[in-house]
Every structure is written in structure tokens, then in C-alpha cells.
Predict the structure.
Amino acid sequence: MEISSSTRMVIIFVFALYTILLLGYSLYTRKAMNEGKGDYISKFYTGGRNGGVLMTAMMVSAGVAGAGVFMGVPGYTYTFGAIWMVCCFWSMCTNFMVLGLIGKRVGIVARRTNSQTFVELLMNRYNKNKLVGALCGLVVLFFLGAFAVSTITGGGRIFQILTGQDYRIGLAIFTVLVIIAAITGGIKGVASAIVIQGIVMTISVIVLFFMGITSTGLSYTGTIHALLDTNPDWFVPTSIKTVISFAFLWGITTFTMPHVTMTTLTYKDTNTLHRAIKIGTIVVAIWLIGLNGLCFTVKYLFPEGSLATPDLGIPTLAVTVMPPWAAGLVLAGVCGAVQSSVGGMVVSLAGTLISDLYKNLINPSVKPETIKKLNTIGIVVISLVIFIFACDPPELLASLITYATGGMTVAFFHTVLLGLFWKPANEYGALAGIISGIALYLLINSGIIPISLGFNPCLMATFLSTVIMVIVSLVTPKTPYGIIATWFGKDYPEQ
């Protein structure tokens, strides 16, 4: 799609102004690292555990959604058919039900055990087993890293639309912004910016929805009927097994994503979390319904082959139907959300690399000053690695998101769920579950073991590895009583 030079200049100006203001605000939040309770590690990874309602709600929303909601999922719908909207609506309901149930318990036991990171939480549950910590850490680095690649790719592609410049230039800019935000403010600095971005993005989606559905010159139902005449196959449901697979992956597995679960380590109290879940549900509902509801319009206005990539459908629509300043604000808001979402992932990845793998497993006596320096180095290195892999992304972001989500699911679904709610779960079962889950996922996905039964390989791998974890836990030594008493005691802390 061609954009006039005057329109492009207005969009770029608004985008640049918004980005500068947001970066300034992120730098301002640096003081959060010097205030509040706890040491440097606690404040960097958990924000001192004093996150408010709006901050927690927007962090959860950004973690669940990110670039996937604005670009990945609509791109999938554009390519494979309207049935994919069903998967999104399912995830809208299940994401927060699951997070509300599991997130509350995670927050409680994290405070009881003084766990600062996702991996440290699991290590504390499974008898501080170093092999469990190492395996979990490696899974986080690989698959959450892949998730971060898919997310930052969305920002790079939007930059491409805005400027007409090479995608990699935008990617480099985003990488620098992520590094600055993550280093200066830790998770709280990232979260503070997310609040602003979430509000901007929510308003933008509402405005874009109404402007988009009127842009065809037809009523909303008229657009759908026109598509039925020109693209009847687009409305034909694909395999029900495929739909179930994606509903599972995009819905109930939210708690297996470390950067989302880390949110539950930051909230002030359980009442804050309950209110945040309600607000977050409404916010993500607006995003999903608004953006996926526009897929009919995108498909009608931009026939097959008219988009550089299907993921660019919504951004292209914004540039087409909105005034330049409004389009610039919309895309800036989305890019800001992408930046903060990636920032949260980078903080989580740095926590895994520096705190979990180095401090907890290699050098427990390391000084806080050294940790601070290593954090900075870790954030830079991780961000650069994400940039390198994002330089050549897949055409559909949702495919990479699905692969990364699947990898974290097969490793953490049973590890977290059984660890929280089943007392017999032990370190031996956790090891067996993680190893078998990853192995089965890779083997089934590659076709070496053809037992998927038409579902996504993640489902069968998760089911079988969960069974393996249960069996191994039952036939091996029990977890020490002290750990069980801490995790399953009836007296919850006041926090």
C-alpha cells in the first residue's frame, strides 16, 4: 500500500513524539528502583510487590495479548478463515479465569517462599533441585525468547508501514528502547509505561473499530454477506481438532508463560489482583472483539495478495481509514505496547539467566553489586539475541507464538498445576515431566512419532508428560514435609 509523503510525515511525527514522551516517562520511573521495600533483586524483578490495580491489570493484559492480538491473530484469521475468531473469544474467557485461580495461589506461595522469579518459585516447590532449576531456566530462555522474537517483530513491521523504511531499522530502534526501559526501571519501570500504553491502545481499538466497519460503504452485516459471495471457503470451519488445539494453546495455558505469571509476583495484595483480573478481562475483551471483528473489513478491503504480509492487515487498515494523526497515535500505542511487552519478557529472561541460573545454581554468594552489573549485561545480550533472530521472522507471527507457547506448555503445565494443587508432586516427577514433555513435543511436531491424532502436538505431549509426572511422583520419595506445609498450609499470609 502506498502512503502519501504528507500523510507519512504526520504519522511519523505523532509516532516519534509519543515514543519520546513514553521513553521519558520510563526514565522517570527509574526512581522506583531506589524506593520501596526489599533489596535490588526484589525491586528489579517484582517491583517491591506493591503493584496497584491498574498497573497489574495492564501488565497481565499486555502479557496475554501483546503483538499477537493486534497483528498475529488477525493475520491468522485473514489467512485461514473466520473460525479463528472462535479461538480468540475462547481465550478471552479462559485466560483470566485461569490466571485468577492460579495467579492468586502463585502470589501467595511466592510471598511465603520469597520467590523472586518464575524458575525460583518452581525450585522452591521441588526441593531446590538444581537440575529442575537448570531445565526450567533453559526452557524459559529458549521458548520465551522465541515468544519475544515474535512480539518485537510486530513492532518492526508497524515501523515499516509507518516509514516505508527497512523493517530491520525499526527492529533496531525497538531493541534500543527495550534495553533502556528494562535497565532503568526493571519490571516496575516497564509496568508504569504499560499503563499509559494500555489506555491508549484501548481507546484506539474502539475508534478504529467504528471507523473501520464504516469504511467499506456497507453495513457490517453487508460486508459479511459480500465476503460470503466472494470468499465462501473462508467461512468454512477447519478441523474441529485444530480449533480445540488453538483454543487450548491460546486460552488455558496462560499460566505457563513466565512473563505473565511474574505479574502475580508484583501485586500489592489479593484484593488488588481480583480487581485487576476484572479490569484486565474487560480490556482484553475490547482488544479481541474490536480487532478480530475488523477481520471481515480487512478481508473485504484488502483481497488476497494485496498485503505485504497478512500480519499487516490491521495496521494497514488504520493508515487507510483514519486521519494521519489518529493513525500515528494508534500505531504508536500499539508499538509502545509491543515495546513494554518485550521489556517485561526481557526482564523475565534476565531474571532466569542471572538470578536463576547464575546466582542460585552457580554462585550463591555473589554480591548484589555484581548482580546489578550482570543484570545490565544480561539485558543487553538478551535483547541483541532477540534482535538477531527477529531479523528473519516467519511470515505469520501467530505460528511462532504458537510454537513458543507450546514449548512452555509441555514443560510447565503439569509442573505448575500439580505443584500448586497436588501434594504428592515431587522433584523426580517434575524432572520426568519436563524432559518427557519437551522430547515428545519435538518428536511429535517433527513427525518422528505420529501420535498427534490431528491435534496440535502440544496437546498430546502435555497429556502424556502429565501422566508420566504423576506416575514418577507416586513411585519415588516424597517431598519433605516442610515444603508441603509451606505450600499447602491453611493460614495464608496477610499480604
User: Anything to note?
Assistant: Residues 5-399 form a domain with the Sodium/glucose cotransporter fold (CATH 1.20.1730.10). The longest helix spans residues 167-214. The chain has one domain: 5-399. The mean pLDDT is 79.
